[in-house]
Specification:
By secondary structure, the protein is mostly helical. The chain has one domain. The chain is about 70% helix and about 0% strand. The longest helix has 22 residues. The protein is globular, with a radius of gyration of 15 Å. It starts with a helix and ends with a helix.
Length: about 160
Amino acid sequence: MIDDDLDESLNDLASQELPRERAERFYDRIRTRIHSYVESKGGALGKTTEFLLLVPDVFILLWRLVNDARIQGKNKVLLGSGVAYFVFPIDLMPEAFLGPIGFVDDLVLAVYVLNKLLADTSIDVLREHWSGEEDVLLTIQRVLAAADSLVSTDLLDRIKKMVK
């Protein structure tokens, strides 16, 4: 079950615009929560571990892009939807019930959003805002390639429909 601080943060963020300070606190909290969760599971999560550890970096990338003046309005709406999906407590795999493993669907949705954004946004803009270790384009490709194994086919189909 998700801890009270993170649950409170999710509810606060879902009810208002996401200012920089709150986005950074959300980033820090999910990063800490996911790292603790991964450590507590040892090697039991297998390949899912490396994807879970991407969640905070992908979230903050969406937030930074939504606030970038170079991003077109239609793409900001799409990015904002991705940010909202992270912060709303109820989604296809709710963190409130599943704990940090529930962020896997958020990650997959966010990567589909980023992939769609690349149709008319330079990869250099994404790279400028990326905090992850691996190149952002490689990360997007890796998550897309693994999406079938990270979430069920039914969930993946729902996510694809949400992003279209």
